[in-house]
Amino acid sequence: VGVKVGIVGSTGYAGEFLIRILARHPEAELVCVCSAHAAGRDAAAVLPALKGLVDVTLCGEDVDHLARTCDVVFTAKKSVESMQYAPVLLDAGVKVIDIGGEFRLKDPAAYEKWYGNTHTCPELLPEAVYGLTELHRDALRSARLAANPGCYPTGAILGLAPLMEEMRGHVRAVTICASSGVSGAGRTPSKEGRNLFVSCFNNHAAYGVGTHKHTPEIEQELGFPVTFVPQLASMDRGILSVMAIHLEEGYVPPRDPGAVLAERYAGEPFIRVYERVGDVCAAGPRGTNFCDLGAVFVERTGVVCVVSALDNLLKGASGQAVQNMNVMCGFDECTGLEGFLG
Amino acid sequence: VGVKVGIVGSTGYAGEFLIRILARHPEAELVCVCSAHAAGRDAAAVLPALKGLVDVTLCGEDVDHLARTCDVVFTAKKSVESMQYAPVLLDAGVKVIDIGGEFRLKDPAAYEKWYGNTHTCPELLPEAVYGLTELHRDALRSARLAANPGCYPTGAILGLAPLMEEMRGHVRAVTICASSGVSGAGRTPSKEGRNLFVSCFNNHAAYGVGTHKHTPEIEQELGFPVTFVPQLASMDRGILSVMAIHLEEGYVPPRDPGAVLAERYAGEPFIRVYERVGDVCAAGPRGTNFCDLGAVFVERTGVVCVVSALDNLLKGASGQAVQNMNVMCGFDECTGLEGFLG
Amino acid sequence: VGVKVGIVGSTGYAGEFLIRILARHPEAELVCVCSAHAAGRDAAAVLPALKGLVDVTLCGEDVDHLARTCDVVFTAKKSVESMQYAPVLLDAGVKVIDIGGEFRLKDPAAYEKWYGNTHTCPELLPEAVYGLTELHRDALRSARLAANPGCYPTGAILGLAPLMEEMRGHVRAVTICASSGVSGAGRTPSKEGRNLFVSCFNNHAAYGVGTHKHTPEIEQELGFPVTFVPQLASMDRGILSVMAIHLEEGYVPPRDPGAVLAERYAGEPFIRVYERVGDVCAAGPRGTNFCDLGAVFVERTGVVCVVSALDNLLKGASGQAVQNMNVMCGFDECTGLEGFLG
Amino acid sequence: VGVKVGIVGSTGYAGEFLIRILARHPEAELVCVCSAHAAGRDAAAVLPALKGLVDVTLCGEDVDHLARTCDVVFTAKKSVESMQYAPVLLDAGVKVIDIGGEFRLKDPAAYEKWYGNTHTCPELLPEAVYGLTELHRDALRSARLAANPGCYPTGAILGLAPLMEEMRGHVRAVTICASSGVSGAGRTPSKEGRNLFVSCFNNHAAYGVGTHKHTPEIEQELGFPVTFVPQLASMDRGILSVMAIHLEEGYVPPRDPGAVLAERYAGEPFIRVYERVGDVCAAGPRGTNFCDLGAVFVERTGVVCVVSALDNLLKGASGQAVQNMNVMCGFDECTGLEGFLG
Fold it and tell me: Which of B292, B266, B279, B197 shows the shortest CA–CA distance to B236?
């Protein structure tokens, strides 16, 4: 076996999918699957769907134990706690892949502004690699610390980046309307009942309009301001993002935007570019590590419409995290990620 | 009783909701509820949920019979047939409210371009009143022919029109991302399976990007080009529209956009303006004739985000059609439309 | 106006639907809509969908104030608190309609066994009328205290009672499989996440097999033991109950079971009996106070299958509670309950 | 590679899942994936979600070509056509696994009665092995023709058979209430709109009460009459079956029914027995070839309640079909079926 792996925050959705993937990953050995609330229990006792699929006993959250026993640790807690784990683990020579938002923004002031917290280890930000694998593969190969992208930014940036580059200097504005499944809101019941069944089922609503904390990482990667409107849809998993790139008046893109995407991502194992944007749908990549893309130029209004879809728990979280581990550890990038992952 | 009413196309979703509303409308008598396929049967035999709620026998589709017996006829067929009904009915002095798209566009060439049909009675287009009640109430009072707006345009225009007017001359571009329940695709199974359960459930996809035929009526009413991206959501009814009004660089709207909407629609019985855009949701107005609105200015990017919600079968179709009937016939506008309509 | 009405527990689902119905009820004046958490706020500020539909300010929970100001009080709290309210209110001459389970069982020992609580006012149990209106209408006319039935028992008993009576002495066993929308689990997030979106969506599971506390009230009303298997379905509202009445070997019911139901409920305003059991569906009565019924005899196995459907928040809770109020106060039984209720 | 495989009826749901599984099956080579409507096209062009997962070109339906090129053929058409394929293929030495209902019943008269068709090759019925792998593994090893069980029967029989045997002579009656996802109704739009989104979403209804054609194969395997009530649930995939075994009065099962199931299926790779019946849920085995089981004895009423769950397209159709192929061809039974299958 290649690496000994630890997971912090194992019983959230991201943690659960890390277990699902890594339990079948031929190069990973799960040595330390931590849960603050369920230490000592079988993972399948807490998450009954895992019965017969994984054989994992949960352990307590102990950073020193992780530092001693693991080669790679995934931190998957919705909180600032990853800022406590990362420095200790890195000091011990452990590679860290953080699924939270703590290491995504290069500018600690931006972190404070958008997240409302003070960063306690800003000295790590310069070396943290933004883990959008398709864009930062080379940097990831030698990274000690990967900041796994947010679910929304993954779909938005993968769709927008090649086209923004192609049309550089001619873009006036970018809007992103993204509809997400409710697992994006996490497993902990929200105070306002936002992830209750009756609140979300057969419903659709925007939230955090213009203020969602995934906004700055999209802007950081694109080098361009975006208006981002996340929406909660009546789905369990999946994000469909509709992006509008408003072009300068009279500017006509030199190439079909779908062809630009297809060329840019030719050979990428986890990107599918569809000719018909209508074939890109939230359900399409569900259960896989794919990000699906399509684009069309609306000549009447001078707008390039880009549509992307992914499974927010896989390419949007745990799948991409393992993809990054594969790159960081020198494994084949697709190891453990082919086909269906649950 | 005030008026004798006919319905053409009674067993589609729009027709069903016309029956639901009109069967309890104190000023309407349903004299001629036509169905090509179920003439002679009780409506409740065809639509079991109506049992005990309506007592209506369906009759055949006979334009002469409608012309002789009705004061008002609703044409609710997804087809060009309303162009055959309208001239005959109007000649006989019957008021016509068309729920299809045939009389919405003033320009017959635009109709041909977007709908792919030749208009067979373009002479009626000048007098047809676009039945967005809140915008054209005065013209509707004396109208013989009302073109009931599309479901998407109703929510989009109600949200955009007052703000476009307020910011006239400072708007650079408008995009509309609208997520619709599947009843918008009609009751007839589509060839591509687009309204099948398994295709739509737990899914979300854009379609008709930049080419949807509701686009031109939005542009006609706003006097401004729009990029319109309709999306099919995992809901049965309801549309949530997210609109981005891109403003000139540096331009700051003089007033809060939510306040503009609240002022414009003060006193409107079927418009609810919410202070928090997050309170506007597809489920909110379901079963009612309300259109819910909210708006916020995203200063960072110079974009006004407007969110609207409505029930596509009520304010987006049959509810608004009855609202128009009330205005055209001189009844209280709210008659038969208060509270919940099914 | 006929009666001054109070509601305890206003912001749960049952309370919300009481507000929706009673705000439009011509004989009721909402004088005291209590909420422990939101006193002083508009109901529509807490429940945004009520905006424009009701004009109600919430007040604190004060039993003495309720006793002084109300003619009728609905207690709609999931707890034992109704046992504290009822004696005080009844002493003050206020009629009480309890939507909880505290007054449904005649036998205080059965209450303790199934509910796990000690009954603190067992002296009220003899006079409490089980508020299944169609079965106990006469007793309700003079009742001071009505125990509104559970959502499951309403559908089960209405379907079973006439057939059990018809086949008295020939029934060997009764099983009830009922699939409920998630609103039945209440608005408070459950510790095990049972009413979270991701847990319930696209899922179906049995719970409380053989132990659900609605079991004894069904047995009390039928005078027969039943095996009751409640199930949580991927719906927001509605219950579909499938009941199997196992008959003695060789016994053939003298009449068609559907005809028995139709005859028994002829003239009942809120019961719809369908000839085809397949027409009885959870969505059919949604938004109304109807209970839909159908039945068929499966000769091969000697089983009468009965299917019932209702909206768990209306006929299964708040709608029936208002129906009971109408009876108890001498109003027309249908007042405020016709058509669609939200 | 072990065997050359053909599929007839490739673009229905069962065919699609056969493609998904077999395209990654290390012992199978897909040589002939037939589609009457899409011959010559890539499977991924017809089923866009398969892009990047399978590389299969569809071919026409030609029984002689199948006979010449295949070692094993799956017939997955909803029709009587498999009766035309099977004799020709078997004559040519090809193993046949039929996913339709044509070869499940030993008695051709029962087939005619329940299916309404005349059987055209009754001479094959004696040798057809009912492909419930866990019950007929030995016979399957040497079978030329396997009749893959229906989706409902798979879950019902696996749950009931060991308990019926354990309690043999003491069972008075068996009822089965099963709630199925809508993919069970197939991809072809039904005339009555039964698989339309709006008809099924947020709904639940029984159908075919006492007359469903899956009934006789359950009775054939159990040797006992059952009352079977299938129900359509608001899910895309999955079946949850609730079975009630009514025992003789006073009879108490000697062992806990959950323990009986656990013992019977110890070592079975695709059966999971849960201690808590509430952990058995439709979503649990989704995407896998598992059938989940749980059982409890309700002493009060003398009923054993058994709950089973499976994915109707996997263990209930294509997964089990491949499991049968593995047994029939001498491969490890789990080949290609471990983990998640889509």
Answer: B197
Q: Measured between alpha carbons, how far is B224 from B172 in angstroms, rounded to an integer?
A: 10
Residue of A nearest to D25 (CA): A339
Q: For residue B123, give every residue at least 6 positions away whose Cβ sits within 8 Å of its Cβ, in sequence order, or none.
A: none
Q: Rounded to an integer, what distance in angstroms lies between the CA atom of residue B205 and that of residue B203?
A: 7
pLDDT digits (tens, 9 = 90+) for D279-308: 999 999 999 999 999 999 999 999 999 999
Planar angle of CA C102, C39, C18, nearest 5 degrees:
50
With an 8 Å Cβ cutoff, are D339 and A202 in contact?
A: no
- Tell me if D233 and C236 make a contact (CB, 8 A cut-off): no
Which residues of chain D are within 8 Å of residue A19 when distances are taken between CB atoms? none
Output the six-digit token pair for A232: 């909660």
Residue whose tokens read 């949530």: B240
Q: What is the spatial distance between Cα A336 and Cα B13, in angstroms, rounded to a whole number?
A: 47
Nearest to D282 by CA among D313, D258, D259, D318: D313
Find the helix packing angle between D257-264 and D151-166, rounded to 10°: 110
Residues counted in chain B: 342
How many Cα atoms within 13 Å fall on the side-chain side of residue C91? 9
Return d(Cα D179, Cα C231) in angstroms, integer.
10
- Across D184-213, b (16+ Cβ under 10 Å) vs e yields bbbbebeeebbbbbbbbbbbbbbbebbebb
B151 is catalytic: yes
The tens place of each residue's pLDDT in chain B, 342 residues long, gives: 699 999 999 889 999 999 999 999 999 999 999 998 899 999 999 999 999 999 999 999 999 999 999 999 999 987 788 899 999 999 999 999 999 999 999 999 999 999 999 999 999 999 999 999 999 999 999 999 999 999 999 999 999 999 999 999 999 999 999 999 999 988 888 877 889 999 999 999 999 999 999 999 999 999 999 999 999 999 999 999 999 999 999 999 999 999 999 999 999 999 999 999 999 999 999 999 999 999 999 999 999 999 999 999 999 999 999 999 999 999 999 999 999 998
Burial group, residue B33, by CB count within 10 angstroms (0-12, 13-18, 19+): buried
Separation of alpha carbons A267 and A168, rounded Å: 24
Q: Residue C193, SS3?
A: coil
Q: What angle do CA B232, B233, B238 make, to 5 degrees?
A: 100
Question: Full-prediction pTM beyond 0.80?
Answer: yes
- In the chain, the amino acid numbered D23 is A
In terms of Cα–Cα distance, which of D7, D10, D30 is closest to D336? D30
Selecting from A208, A226, A233 the residue whose C-beta is nearest the C-beta of B233 gives A233
Smallest CA–CA distance, residue C342 to chain B, in Å, is 5
Query: Which DSSP category does D148 fall into?
Result: P
Buried-state track C108-146, b at ≥16 Cβ within 10 A, e below 16 = eebbeebbeeebebbebbeebbbbbbbbbbeebeebbbb
How far apart CA A80 and CA A8 sit, in angstroms, is 12
Place of tokens 């059966």: D271
State whether B342 and C339 contact (CB < 8 Å): yes
Cβ <8 Å between C201 and A199: no
d(CA D9, CA D3): 19
| Nearest C-alpha neighbor of B96 from the set B121, B62, B125, B71 | B71
Reported ipTM: 0.97
Bridge partners (DSSP) of residue B35 are none
Q: How far apart are CA A206 and CA D303, in angstroms?
A: 49
Burial annotation C219-258 (CB, 10 A radius, 16+ → b, else e) = bbbbebbbbbbbbbbbbbbbbbbbbbbbbeeeeebeeebb
Q: How far apart are CA A238 and CA B231, in angstroms?
A: 15
For residues C123 and C108, give the distance between their C-alpha atoms in angstroms, rounded to a whole number. 9
